[in-house]
Write a structure and sequence with these properties.
7-stranded mixed β-sheet; 4-stranded antiparallel β-sheet; 24 helices; about 50% helix
């Protein structure tokens, strides 16, 4: 069947960058669904776009829709016919299909999702496929209307809502214009180039020429190409300035969605502003202006920055404007910096009592007091010495004091960073200053956990306090609602325990301790219910982390083996998952036998109480394999007794290979459940004990 490419371009007034990103993410599925509804076979669906246009390119759209020949289920026979004569229900059903009532038949149907078993009327709907040109217009119009925007607007006297007013439409199937109307605009082949560098309109001859036509007119409509060109130009400008640009993926994506063709200018500011912490200069450049800083070394900034603009016209004039704005912003930041340093950080502590954390959970000062007490207990549990515990106490006391500084009031994203800067300037020890900043880590899934025990201990105490309090008052996340970022807090706590190797920290023990720290406050849930709910919540987060580290099947096997016990030793759970993943990836030949043995042992364990009988219990047994069974299970018990490290799990798995092979042979050659054998009971109990020993590593039967 012949095919042709399809193009849709919606020209709009400038869209915000977040609108562009969301629309381009949603468009391919929206269009594919509409084409499927129209029974049009097609190839790859590609979304293209800039702030001024959203476009869709679909390759190989069939020239005709597929023919239709399907059986349609109608009303029950008792409803469709009375005394052999068709009722209005039968006539309406036949009219819907476009057939005569005599063409309907009655068949027996079993129960289905939406029907009871019985006799039903059925008919056939047969349609000849129509030309694609008659159908794509409606499919494209529906696609336009379905594009999601966080906020939509109306304009003129139209009922249509869209992200911004629509200015023009291009719709082509092959070289032909697809007739359609949307938002008061009719389609054609007339598009527009760059607003400043190529403002004249032009005709798009063919969908496959669209990207090149726009590129020639200073519009890079492919977002990936636009990002690549922008990064190349940023890197070149940074090298010319004698440094490297400050990499920030979010800033790259946002700038790419703000322009049609990226041009980079290099601005500068007074070197005196470098007295400010680098994090402050970055916050000014990134947060307010979307500029890139230029750095030399790990944290040394140059007094220059890079701005991505949408035009190559008058770069000197643009630079003067950006310099003026940057200078004003940095002047404000320098004022905050100097004013804040007139008051010592510790003297701000009492002001935290004026910030409400939650009306049921107290103020930020209350939270800091709870966190300090809990952090001291965690520090003792992980074995910190007196000097480190003193650092924990000091850092916890100062951890939130920067929330009442002028700088954080203006730049909330600098909480922690400013606390560290002010603490360091006041002569606090490096471990204390760094912990004020790093106790917020990890901030996201890709962020590192705190790299020091002092910061890590406070990070855990802070998260346990939030989790216990919020769950106790009924603020557990539901759907997209997670105002206190509890999912992130839970994941951060689990990652910190795992990556810092805190084997002595059982998750539920510390959420329980955090609950108790709230004292006599009255909550919806008592301590036991809160801890149970948090365990369930944390287990789901742990499953996600293990899946990321080792894959879904391995994660399920590890958690099925240990259950809630995985939260008692998160470090060991990760060790088991990584070691088991290595075995699965290597396709060890004994793994299949281990799966079979695990299933057999699981069946036995349901019938017998796990117990490792002494060797003497099988002396004189008529079955020569009883002694071997007992020895193998004892060996398995020893191998899986202390799975504290990844190497320990690997060693256990190596022994597991031999044990699984031998047990598989015994199951094939020996009747282990012999009702006439007096030793069957002890034998089954010993095998059931073997099942529990295998589960210490994982439930191998879950590996497929």
């Amino acid at each position: 069947m012949a095919a042709a490419p399809l193009l849709l371009e919606i020209g709009v007034e400038e869209l915000p960058s977040s609108f562009v990103d969301a629309a381009l993410a949603a468009l391919p599925k929206i269009a594919a669904d509409e084409l499927a509804n129209a029974r049009l076979v097609h190839g790859t669906v590609t979304a293209l776009g800039t702030p001024r246009r959203l476009a869709l390119h679909v390759s190989d759209v069939a020239e005709r829709q597929l023919d239709l020949d399907e059986e349609v289920l109608g009303p029950p026979e008792a409803v469709a016919f009375r005394d052999g004569a068709p009722t209005k229900a039968a006539e309406a059903f036949a009219a819907k299909l476009g057939v005569a009532v005599g063409a309907l038949t009655v068949v027996e149907k079993p129960a289905g999702p939406k029907q009871k078993p019985g006799r039903y009327v059925v008919g056939r709907r047969v349609e000849k496929g129509r030309p694609a040109m008659e159908l794509v217009g409606e499919a494209l119009m529906k696609s336009c209307a379905a594009i999601p925007f966080r906020k939509s607007m109306r304009w003129a006297d139209l009922d249509v809502k869209f992200g911004r007013p629509v200015q023009w439409l291009v719709a082509l199937l092959g070289g032909e214009v697809v007739p359609l109307a949307f938002a008061g605009v009719r389609s054609g082949r007339r598009s527009r180039g760059h607003r400043f560098l190529a403002p004249e309109g032009f005709d798009v001859a063919h969908p496959d020429a669209y990207v090149a036509d726009l590129r020639a007119r200073h519009v890079l409509v492919d977002s990936q190409e636009r990002v690549r060109v922008m990064v190349e130009r940023i890197e070149a400008a940074a090298r010319a300035a004698g440094g490297a640009y400050d990499r920030e993926p979010m800033l790259v994506d946002e700038n790419a969605s703000l322009v049609e063709e990226p041009h980079v200018i290099t601005g500068s500011f007074d070197r005196a502003f470098l007295e400010l912490p680098a994090s402050v200069i970055r916050a000014v450049a990134r947060g307010h202006q979307r500029y890139f800083c230029i750095q030399k070394g790990d944290d040394e900034l140059l007094p220059e920055y890079l701005a991505v603009v949408n035009t190559a016209n008058r770069p000197d004039l643009i630079t003067r404007g950006t310099d003026r704005v940057m200078r004003a912003r940095l002047s404000d930041a320098r004022f905050f910096w100097r004013e804040d340093q007139k008051t010592r950080l510790e003297t701000r502590y009492e002001k935290l009592g004026g910030i409400v954390f939650h009306n049921r959970l107290g103020t930020v000062k209350d939270k800091v007091e709870r966190v300090a007490g809990l952090a001291d207990r965690i520090a003792s549990a992980v074995g910190l010495d007196d000097a480190r515990r003193a650092a924990v106490a000091r850092a916890a006391y100062l951890s939130k004091c920067d929330l009442v500084t002028l700088m954080v009031g203006e730049f909330p994203e600098l909480q922690g960073h400013m606390g560290r800067a002010y603490a360091a300037a006041e002569g606090e020890p490096a471990a204390v200053a760094d912990a004020i900043r790093d106790h917020y880590k990890p901030l996201g899934g890709q962020d590192d956990v705190a790299g020091d025990d002092v910061a890590a201990v406070i990070a855990l105490a802070d998260r346990f306090d939030s989790l216990a309090g919020c769950f106790a008052v009924g603020l557990a996340p539901t759907g997209a609602n997670d105002a206190f970022a509890l999912r992130r807090a839970c994941i951060g706590a689990l990652r910190t325990i795992a990556e810092r190797g805190y084997r002595r920290l059982a998750f539920s023990e510390w959420t329980s301790a955090a609950y108790e720290a709230y004292g006599d406050r009255k909550f919806e849930l008592d301590r036991a219910a809160t801890v149970a709910k948090l365990d369930e919540f944390a287990l789901e987060r742990l499953r996600g982390l293990l899946t990321g580290a080792a894959g879904g099947a391995v994660a399920d096997a590890v958690l099925a083996g240990s259950g809630d016990a995985a939260l008692k030793d998160v470090v060991a759970a990760f060790a088991r998952a990584r070691a088991l993943k290595a075995v699965v990836d290597a396709r060890e030949p004994w793994l299949e036998r281990a799966k079979v043995v695990a299933k057999r042992l699981a069946g036995i364990s349901r019938e017998a109480t796990p117990r490792l009988h002494p060797a003497e219990a099988f002396r004189g047994s008529a079955k020569t394999d009883d002694a071997a069974i007992r020895a193998l299970i004892a060996d398995l018990d020893v191998a899986t007794e202390a799975l504290t490290t990844e190497q320990g799990v690997r060693d256990a798995l190596m022994r597991m290979g031999r044990i699984a092979t031998e047990l598989d042979r015994i199951f094939v050659e020996t009747l282990v459940n012999d009702p006439s054998d007096p030793l069957t009971g002890p034998r089954l109990e010993t095998l059931a004990y073997g099942a529990s020993a295998m589960l210490r590593i994982a439930d191998f039967s879950r590996l497929g």
